[in-house]
Amino acid sequence: MFGFHLGISGGMISMDSFLKFFYQVYGKENNIKPSNDPYCKFDSQILALFTSSLYLAALIASVFASFVIQRFGRRPPMICGGVFFYLGGVSVFCAFFRPDAELDGFQKYGWLLIVSRVFYGLGIGSTHQSLSMYIYEVARYQDRKLLNMIFPLVISIGIFAANVINYVVAIKEKGEAWRNSLRFEIFQMIYLICTFLLESPIYLIERGLYEKGKMELILIRKTTDVEEEFNNLMAANEYRAMKDPWISLLKRQYRPQLILAIAIPLFQQLTGINVIIFYAPILFKTIGFGAHASLMYAMIIGGCNVIATLVSIFTLNKKFGRRTLFLQGGIQMFICQILAIAYKFGLDGNVGILPKWYAIVVVCGICVYVAGFAWSWGSLGWLVPSEIFSFEVRSAAQSINVFVNMIFTFVIAQIFTTMFCHMKFGLFIFFACMLIVINTFIYKLLPETKDISIEEMHVIWQSHPYWKKFVKPIDITISDEF
Ligand SMILES: OC[C@H]1O[C@](O)(CO)[C@@H](O)[C@@H]1O
Fold it and tell me: Major facilitator superfamily (MFS) profile domain location, by residue (predicted)?
């Protein structure tokens, strides 16, 4: 669902019928109208809010969720998320399935579009952390790594599904296709199924409900032979009771984890990936591609993202170290940005009928960029934190990770159209500079974590040229098996 929302809005706002509707509904009161400059046609803060409101809501919900997860368990935020998805669906339903929903009706109910995005955002914010924590806690130790890698894969599949829906509804239907794209969102109500999940045994043990925790562990593992695992969970609980993860994370000793919990999601967004994921159809239309072609190219790029993520999980991650992949992907993305600048992406405003070869070069260039992201920052951005956040600070560090990811997803969604209007192809200079900073950071500050256990990580920090200043040899870290 997260992936689906990342992918759906860009296609919709590139559809002329949507823009017309949007400016009709919101333009009057807010004095906005589409510009004649092709780079500025989409430059409206309210239009950007249609995309970004979801991430702003997700950001706020994720803060609440991280407290609820600790106090009331992993299930309540999942159930709240289900209710929010349901309300998002109801808002779309009210706006589009009403018998009087002719143009006037749509104008009257247009605000429900943003309301539905806010509900979906609250749903995503509530579930993002609780689900990833739940999966981590319930999974067997040996399955965790794979599950962590599947996370970016399912996001990319969600994005691709949204791209396909946008394209198919647009070619099947003339005019008001975006309404059908929105109707697909209603299927998210199936998320309510998640409310049937059991509570995490780790949470129950934390709350002193030992018997219940053991029962749920038996149900989850489908065997009564859980004594050893249960005893491990109890031992880990005693250890955890002595240390609050938020207080620990602020200690000097955990500085590498704190900095990386902020830097990894921040840099993942500053690679500029969401400029493409959110706004590829707009970029294409601006430089003169047709409406259907723009949606088709966005779909090809979405497909490329899925394939490259699969390649990353099943081959590259097994063969190459994390640093190598981060740096290789970063350099690949940097070269693509430089090419976009050199060839003045968008022909510097001379939009019109474009030769076919130009379209092919642009789309291939973006595919190479997206592939570079998918096998570096896309997959490692979720995997590496799980390898470096030690047990005692994991929940706090993971909350920060999700929070920072949401802030910058929101920022990019909100400022892109304005940046594009003012900077034109110079936008790529900004992201190219960011990639220099990002690659330098990885080169200097990220130690290799492939095939390193959490206990060994401690030694890695101590022998790192920079982090050794912070990490003292005496502190021990509890095994990741807990
Ligand atoms: O697959 C690309 C997508 O992955 C994310 O970085 C999350 O991991 C999103 O921000 C982006 O849209």
Answer: 1-450
